[in-house]
Amino acid sequence: MAGISVPIKLVKYETSQGSSGQNLTSAPTKFELFAEVLDAGHGFRSYDAQTQLGLVRRFKIRFRDTLTPTGDWKIEFRGKKWTIVSIEPEGERLFWWIITANHK
Question: Which domains does the chain have, with CATH numbers?
């Protein structure tokens, strides 16, 4: 699948606190993008001293610097929600990012 751009969605969930202290989640904000899937894998992987079990994907995504996804965001890819594990710039290329995410 490397080299082929596939449609994904970056999804931002915002949580606020209600008047009685409960957490309220607003409607998610979705950004439709295209990404290149760099590798695919099953099983155990280690990221930041944490062992991840499940499906792990690395997505190469181009987006503006005004969009700043964090680990609180999710990726929707092929009908599944992926949890972001790490985000790093791709070398010296401006606006290109490598996002590692897993799906359990």
Answer: 5-103 (2.40.10.270)
